[in-house]
Design goal:
Structural class: alpha/beta
CATH class of the largest domain: Alpha Beta
CATH topology of the largest domain: Rossmann fold
Number of domains: 2
Number of helices: 9
Shape: globular
């Protein structure tokens, strides 16, 4: 995401790294709730995520969220607080550009619906794919993107096209008024002021893993 920090409700700057960790906390809390846990300590939450309990407490304290001695955090309360902090208290409409393998997988991913995200539009420029039904959504011609987004407002657009096409797609999305883009290509899309871009490059992740295996990656200090 663009920017190094955000602002808490108290007006204090929040480190970008803290905001990056909050979704991990939330996902783990969902898991704890599924197995029936009512409370969780910062130590248990930290151990489940490979983080120090002091880091957990520091991150949550930015937002005035504090646990209780002996009992830790009430899981339902903490989930509610994190959902509000992360803006997950409303439904978000998604558009996917690219109806290939990745686009299809994302369009049929049931995890979106369980988290209040709804795929509303899918676009492609391949005539063989236009008109196909993917997960209940008919693939639209990419040339109609601006028109269709006016009809069905979109909060977040996902780019799942070949790298060379990603730049044009991003330009079109920005022109259509999209302010949040999830980029599933290796393309570097950083030059759109006021637009938040999250990168999910598979290649980048694989490169990092290869670097770890090479033995050149600095190891974390032991606790």
């Amino acid at each position: 995401m663009n920017g190094d920090s955000t602002i808490s409700s108290k007006g204090n700057p929040i480190p970008h790294a803290t905001m990056e960790r909050l979704p991990r906390y939330l996902m783990q809390l969902y898991r704890f709730r599924v197995i029936g846990d009512a409370n969780v300590s910062s130590q248990a939450l930290g151990e489940s995520l490979g983080l120090k309990d002091t880091q957990i407490r520091k991150d949550l304290s930015y937002f005035g969220v504090f646990g209780k001695a002996r009992y830790g955090y009430n899981i339902d309360f903490l989930i509610d607080a994190l959902e509000k902090i992360l803006g997950l208290t409303r439904v978000y409409n998604l558009a996917i550009v690219g109806a290939g393998n990745i686009g299809r997988a994302l369009a049929t991913y049931r995890g979106f619906e369980s988290r209040e995200f709804r795929v509303k539009l899918i676009f492609d420029n391949n005539k063989g794919l236009i008109g196909q039904d993917i997960g209940g959504i008919v693939v639209q011609d990419f040339r109609l993107l601006e028109e269709k987004i006016k009809e069905i407002p979109v909060d977040i657009a996902i780019i799942a096209v070949p790298e060379k096409a990603a730049y044009e797609v991003a330009e079109t999305l920005v022109k259509a008024g999209i302010k949040a883009i999830y980029n599933f290509t290796p393309a570097e899309l950083h030059h759109h002021e006021g637009v938040f871009i999250e990168h999910a490059s598979i290649s980048f992740g694989i490169y990092k893993l290869a670097h770890h295996l090479s033995g050149h990656w600095p190891r974390k200090s032991q606790r």
